[in-house]
Specification:
With 112 residues, the protein is mainly α. Helix content is 76%, strand content 0%. It contains six helices and no strands. It has helices spanning 3-26, 31-39, 43-65, 72-81, 88-98, 102-109. It starts with a helix and ends with a helix. The relative contact order is 0.13.
Length: 112
């Protein structure tokens, strides 16, 4: 990767974090955004994580409809897919605070 491309990537990351920080100024309860900025995750990494959450949320709804009462395998799937720079406890609490995937993360909080 050339030096120019590295600089472009860093600028894009800073622009992304700046947008999240502006959202945080408007609403300090956006804990997940704070976590993304503090961890230095890129837009792509955040979007990948959210797509995993979408998938887990769908599986959670299906399993709940089928009468499942234990969702530890979904929690383990989240744990395995979590970017290394994120702490699982912090992610669960941040998602609950920001009301992202509420029922799913309420269930996951039981496994912490």
């Amino acid at each position: 990767m050339s030096e120019i491309q590295i600089l472009i990537n860093k600028i894009q990351l800073l622009e992304f974090h700046q947008k999240l920080l502006l959202e945080l100024i408007r609403n300090p309860k956006l804990e997940f955004y704070r976590l993304i900025v503090e961890s230095g995750l890129s837009r792509q990494e955040m979007e990948h994580f959210l797509s995993i959450c979408d998938h887990l949320n769908e599986k959670f709804a299906e399993q709940k409809a089928e009468g499942f009462v234990h969702f530890h395998p979904l929690f383990a799937e989240l744990k395995a897919a979590l970017p290394v720079r994120l702490n699982l406890n912090e992610v669960v609490h941040a998602c609950l605070t920001q009301n992202l995937y509420g029922p799913l993360f309420q269930e996951f909080a039981k496994y912490l």
